[in-house]
Amino acid sequence: MWEKVFLLCQVLLPGQCVQTLTTAIMPKDCSLACIRQGGPGCDYCRVSIDDINTNFGLKSPKLFGGCIPWPCFKLLGEEDPSICQHYVEAPTDVNIDFLPDPNPNSDSVVVSWSPSLYGISFLRGFQVILQPLGGSVAACQLFVFQKNLTLYASHAQRVYKSDPIHGLPLGSQFSLTVMALPVPEKWEHFYRGKIFSTRSCAEKNGLHLCKADWYPQHVDVHQRGTVTTITFNLAPPNLAIKSYFSVCVANGKTTYTEIEPNYSKNQTHHSFELRDLTEGANYTCEIAANQMDAMRKLFSFQVERQEPVSTSPSWTLKPSFQSGLTSSLEEVKAQEEVMIPPENRKNPPRLLICYSSNDGPAHVNAVMKLGAFVQQQMATQVTLDLWDSLGLAEEGHVAWFCRQIRESDFVLVICSRGLCHKSEHSAESILGSEGMVGLIGAEVGRAKSEGKDLSKYMAAIFNYSEDTDIPTELGLVFRYRLTADLPKLFSQLHQVRLHAPGRYLKIKNISEEDFIRSPAGQALQQAINETAKAMKENRERFGSEEKSNDRS
Question: Given Cys at both, which of 173, 252, 337, 359 links 418, Cβ 3.0 to 4.6 Å?
Fold first, then answer.
């Protein structure tokens, strides 16, 4: 009957039926007994690991947060195993919607999707996995259809929703996976992946409620002779910002001014004067709240004789995470062009990052933080085996790496002391760092012999590694030392020139001086420091053991 109504809607009343067809289906609370018996009202049910463990006496592993893709066999397949063995293709139209969240420091989302037309009659449910880039599983939800439910081709128009996912930190990136159940024995593309970012504090709550994101938006410059008066808007009272500072630079000279407004006179704006400025000089200034890691407003003006000059503020940037806020700015000798990488580029370059786990978990963490930084700050789509455990399990390490090398626009090998050492206990042993280096080296050699561009392949070392850690197989590729060469890496990924006669390009929050202005940059620097410390301790311990063995 439903299918007849659907066809009638398509032929006679398409405009009137859209709302009915796209109404989202929300999960219900229903017992496992109802699901297994195919009772009424149990067509789309949420299932928790506690329910599975309680009813079947299982102790689910912590893989994927305890939510794993095999419950179909246990829930519905004991009497008829064939019900859980048919191929089902990945869901389509995966979307994320933000929900109201009373916590000003977190976001809430709900996931929606549609089932694929292919294999829909064998579909038994869905699984949603949410994982922060560079972290462990944040949420995992399992939804199962009742045993006797059968979907038809027309049901591919339906939209299913997850339960709300709460407590996601603001300004963070997440990897979302929605898979169809059952997972077939011969794995195919049964899941759909998507990367998204939660909102910033300013986007969710408004700039007036976010101390870390607030900055003076309105700055006016008025000159009279060599005296310059600067007026800027004050922070809202609820942010409790009581003092500010200004830094102006010209001809190698830095002028630092501490500002304490008198709120009894004016609670919205404040003016201060800069005196004894050099006539004819071009000044570049920053103004910000006197708070650690505060957003700064950058503006510039030229001091002219007897002629007041007013220029509007141009752009904002975050300060370096330093012990003080009075650091000097370098004199700009060439015309500087500031570039802000686009956040939602339609076709970002695809970068595969390869590495060795032989140097320990600290090094792996540094690689993971680098991937997150490149993805967030360099407008680049990063592929890292740590973020695609399902793909690795589906294809195997060798096939996965071969496909990623083939499909990526760039391949970056993070070289370290253990890169060419054999590993027997890690997952990497399936392919091996030697095999990985040999595989990429063979691709480089083939490209060289055919006269092709070698810019696809790159090698890099962190500050705690040495140039000798780069294998000879990668001797022909571009080499970078991170974090000093982050701008050069960006230049290669986006094919832009950093220098030209009389000008140079500065990419926001990427240079060695200011990459830690972003949270991802701070996390990367901390991971590098921790790895350097761990490697130093290992070398010292290894040296002590060698001396002890020599004495014995």
Answer: 359
